[in-house]
Specification:
heterodimer, A: 64 residues, mainly alpha, 434 Repressor (Amino-terminal Domain), two-stranded antiparallel ribbon, 2 strands, B: 152 residues, membrane (chain B), transmembrane helix (chain B), transmembrane (chain B), DNA binding (chain A)
Chain lengths: 64, 152
């Protein structure tokens, strides 16, 4: 699954550590999410969407 | 993060207390042995150590539960994946040894006694269980590292 997490984080000039703190996860988890090697659970995906104030489908996509 | 730090400190203190309790228990048993009581064939001592081990394992499970609750979902997934694949891989290696050990030819193999020069069935059963556990934990460690290395 692809996502725009890295772009959205860069737009806000946030570090991975800051985003991790906001989401309540580790920096390693944020890195795994950004590289698309770990797909978040629905609760975490909703949390991410709320944090960026965007719909889930505009952050995550299942297109190759 | 603060919760995890607190849990780590509590776990270290808990391990220290368990080690201290084991040391005291060993000391008491050694004292009784010196005083002429046959502790090594005492059923009471066996059950006392068994009870101590059961309490230790229950505390370990509780710490494991608290630990899993304190880490995030990716870290939990890494542990679950590692336990399934690494543990299964280790068990598969152990399974080969179990099948080989069941053959009549294995009766001629001399397996060294691993503690107190014991070569009785209970000691060998413990050896087998310990060997299987070790293989599973090695597999678990490798799989856990593999999971995170693939997501760096």
């Amino acid at each position: 699954m692809n996502n725009r997490l890295k772009v959205l984080r860069a737009e806000r000039d946030w570090s991975q550590a800051h985003l991790a703190t906001e989401l309540g996860v580790s920096r390693q988890t944020v890195n795994a999410l950004e590289t698309g090697r770990y797909d978040p659970s629905l609760p975490l995906a909703f949390k991410i969407a709320r944090l960026f104030q965007m719909p889930i489908e505009s952050i995550f996509s299942d297109e190759e | 993060m603060a919760g995890k730090r607190k849990l780590i400190i509590q776990s270290v203190i808990g391990c220290g207390l368990v080690m201290l309790a084991a040391f005291i228990m060993g000391g008491v048993l050694a004292y009784l042995e010196v005083k002429g009581q046959d502790v090594t064939s005492s059923a009471g001592a066996l059950w006392a150590v068994g009870g101590f081990a059961a309490v230790t394992m229950l505390i370990s499970l509780w710490v494991g539960f608290k630990w899993m609750s304190s880490i995030d979902e990716a870290a939990q997934e890494a542990h679950k994946w590692a336990w399934y694949w690494g543990g299964s891989g280790g068990m598969a290696v152990g399974g080969v040894l179990v099948i080989m050990a069941s053959l009549p030819q294995a009766a001629a193999i001399h397996i060294p006694a691993w503690y107190s020069e014991r070569s009785d069935p209970a000691a060998y059963a413990a050896t087998g269980a310990f060997a299987m556990l070790t293989l599973m934990l090695i597999g678990y460690g490798v799989a856990w590292a593999w999971w995170w290395l693939g997501r760096r």
